[in-house]
Design brief:
The complex is a heterodimer of chains A (190) and B (213). Chain A has 190 residues and is mainly α. Chain A is globular, with a radius of gyration of 17 Å. Chain A has two domains: 90 residues, Rna Polymerase Sigma Factor, Chain: A (Orthogonal Bundle), CATH 1.10.1740.10; 58 residues, Winged helix-like DNA-binding domain superfamily/Winged helix DNA-binding domain (Arc Repressor Mutant, subunit A, Orthogonal Bundle). The relative contact order of chain A is 0.11. In chain A, helix 3 packs across helix 4. Chain B has a domain of 112 residues: Jelly Rolls (Sandwich). In chain B, the strands form three sheets. Chain B has a six-stranded antiparallel beta sheet, with helices on one face. Chain B has a three-stranded antiparallel beta sheet with strand order 9-4-12. Chain B has a three-stranded antiparallel beta sheet with strand order 7-6-10, with no helix packed on it. The longest helix of chain B is centred in the first third of the chain and has 20 residues. Chain B is elongated and about 65 Å long. Classes of the chains: A mainly alpha (190), B alpha+beta (213). The interface between A and B is large, with 77 and 54 residues. The structure holds zinc ion. The site of zinc ion has 6 residues of chain B, from helix 3.
Chain lengths: 190, 213
Amino acid sequence: MVLRLPMSAKPEVQEMNALLGRVAMERDRTAFAALFSHFAPRVKAYLLRQGAPAAVAEDLAQEALLSLWRKAHLFDPAKASVATWLFTIARNLRIDAIRREKRPELDPEDFMPETGPSADQSMVIADDESRLRLALKELPADQVQVVQLSFFADKPHSQIATELGIPLGTVKSRLRLAMSRLKRALGEME
Amino acid sequence: MIHHHPGDELLLAYAAGTADEAVSLIVATHMSYCAVCRERTAKLESLGGALLQDLPPAELEAGALDNVLARLDAVKPFERPRRAASRDGTPAVLRAYIGGDLSTVRWRSMGPRLSYAPLFKRGKVSARLLRGVPGADSGVHHHCGTEFTVVLQGGYTDPTGNYGPGDLQVMEDGMSHNVVADPGEDCVNLAVTTGRLKFDSLLQKIAAPLFGF
Ligand SMILES: [Zn+2]
């Protein structure tokens, strides 16, 4: 299935890739500042949603972008978008700093080649973020809400149900519906 | 060939980083064997990236950028830690918890046919290795809380099917089963439990608490 991307989404991904490329290759501070201005406020918003106190969210957002500077040479645009890569960095920083746990995983923040998907699939993955953003816009608001809460609120589904004032089964069915539509947007075979 | 994969909900909790350490270890260990779930996880992480892009930005403190720019020169480029290669195919993510290969595990006996090795415990959640000789039978037991199992070596069979290396099984609260190790080599599993197990047989009822089950 071929999905046409909106003109706005894909160039943004490419623009971010290009900026990160300049950070990696040339240690370009102007490019870094542009990435910082775009992503640090979003990473902070993510951490606030996870329940981090404002000062902690601020510190970790700055740390996440500092990590981007330190790890820029490991970024592979064929495997993930900058936003996705930064999401995994921020997620792991949060687990480390707030939950004080380790995160057992195969490929820390940098998609180690020996565990990554094969090369022909990775081109598809690089476009996933754009496709998903488009698909999210098409979802009913109540489904988007449950997807966001599942990702960003560090709470079990039962608690999400209580807070939304809906039955647990409804949370799960909304999530299931949303996930199947998002998978379809990625052209995944069920 | 992997036959039993984590469901969407479990994989999403791993990708979102809301799963706790022990459950994450279960998923990561499964993914060491399973390219399908590595790809599913990559897609879920892309969903995290898409959601991050669409979040309304929060306001940073004044001087945040200058503060970070001033630190750039002082930090060193990240170097990936080198992990020693496994000699017996133990997943690297698990080696970090064992402190070496599966072949170096010091097993504690639970009778002639079963043994175990604790990895860690956080609150009510325990991660441990379990080992049974071929034909070893766990006896019927009931799950209070959820149990996650990934087979590392050999295999086992329970009423729901057959499980081999890499296969992941989730037993929900209140479910019961008995597990029999398959013929061939010893069956070794990584098991994470979020509650206690209750056994039917009197002997195991007495023994289980001694082993911390
Ligand atoms: Zn799998």
